[in-house]
Structure prediction request, 607 residues.
Amino acid sequence: MCGIVGYTGAERAQGILIEGLTRLEYRGYDSAGVAIQEGGALEVVCRKGKVGELSRTLEDFDLKGTCGIGHTRWATHGKPSEANAHPHTSCAGDIAIVHNGIIENFAELRDELMARGHSFASDTDTEVVAHLVEEAYDGDLRAAVADATARLVGAYGLAVVCDREPGTIIVTRKDSPIVVGRGAEGSYVASDMIAMIDATRDVVVLADGQTARLTAEGIEYFDEAGEPIEPTVTHVDWDIDMAEKGGHPDFMLKEIYEQPRVIRDTLAGRLVSGALAIDELDMTPEELDLVDRVYVIACGTSYHAGLIAKNLIEAWARIPCEVEVASEFRYRNPIITPTTLVVAVSQSGETADTLAAIRDARVKGAKVFGITNVVGSPVARESDGVIYTKANKEIAVASTKSFLGQVASLTLLALLLAQAKGGLTTAQIRLLFSELADTAEQVEAILEDTAAIDEAALACKDATSALFIGRGMGAAISYEGALKLKEISYLHAEAYAAGEMKHGPIALIDEGFPVIAIATKSPVYDKIVSNLQESKARGAMIVAVATEGDEDIRKHADHVIYIPKVRDAFSAITASVPLQLFARAVAVARGCDVDQPRNLAKSVTVE
Ligand code: M6R
Prediction:
């Protein structure tokens, strides 16, 4: 979401901070800033845009200080701007903080602090922390940070400096990564060890509630109660390339493993006092209640996220929802009225067809919501409201974590529409939200043991074609599974709603033909089992993605990939993950470059 760095030592901080921030730019890049202790005061310099912009500005400042913190931002609360860029400071400007995460109770804290005379310079959730630390400060920065964080609800990785404690950085975390390391020239902190890998290979991954005090001389660690502790030091052998990939052999795998975090970040702060809140959409419940038709427009994987959303919007909000590839939508004359809501989904936010469709829909009078991963992208700028998926920069051409971010965001939108339409009660929304949040752990469980997936992939690697089938939600999931496989392994794959098998696709099946079936427990489970039997009878090699505990499925499948039991509405989140891993494993076994498949680009900015 955001990247934070800090350094205190014998060297000038400016260059070290910029280098660290540049390595962390994958976490966000809509603005960047540093706070450096300079001659007894804090010099804070922030710029909108990428770290390069900040770096050029700092050349004029040429700061000599040897202790400082820095931040590269991915906007959550408050638009990308210089005012909203971190570090944020206290009223007196003597305390500066950088933050990664979301402070869920910031609005009430802000009101409280303002009532006590604090003035705020930004729209961010983060700034409250600087003011809380300011109020708590009584000569001990560590104690003040502990007092301040005790008031916070949400996730945070924090680095704090104060001009009255020269050469000291206090860091702490909850549900947000913080890595601390000691090099020959000083002490370092960052959201990811990649930012300090040139200085040290021995790092401490701070645990939730722990705090570290960094000085030029060394690092002290404290537990939640403020008692000193001995940290566990991890030695990392990775080279820069591996470190950038988080120790994974390719970006695709790294990004697949980031998905539990994406789900958590997407949901953070969305349930306020039991009600769904998506303030960025800037529509009142009454306006939402008037919506009588939804179009989801998108391309590729984003289109598949739309197919999943259709199921949820129609089931929960009872609003007709059509999903169209943008390149078709823009060239026909869809029925659009002022009560039509168009939802444009795009990871990059710059897909030419999706943009053209947005423009067309707005001319025809529709309200357009964008769902995109890139802050300030054309889709974000040209939509009436925007939800940012919290995937962070996605490098592999094949979308994985951005897809899960889209599905999670669209699920929230479906719940919001259901809330406005009265399709679900408050209690139902709370229950669904909590089950949706549980999928983060369920995805973690899937990622822990991939042996069955790898085995199925090896069995399929020499095939020339494969068929993905599913019903209901499973059909939408199978479309995305087939796209993943063909785009990175070049193995021809088709997806079909399983009920269509007898209308043509079953003719493809002969001895050993791979059929990958979404056969999770759902209202149409028995029907999909019948499809498996029909396929098996014709010699298919069946790979079934099934629900844990379903032993019966083994009778019908050659390979079973079990996933945790979830409500059918959320099965797209869990069942898509093994299909991503399956596609990647097939591609690796076939010797393909999984991050940069031939003929494809990450952004499709031309028709
Ligand atoms: O950036 P967008 O989401 O608008 O991109 C849409 C498609 O080009 C994209 O999803 C493409 O299909 C990916 N290669 C899928 O992995």
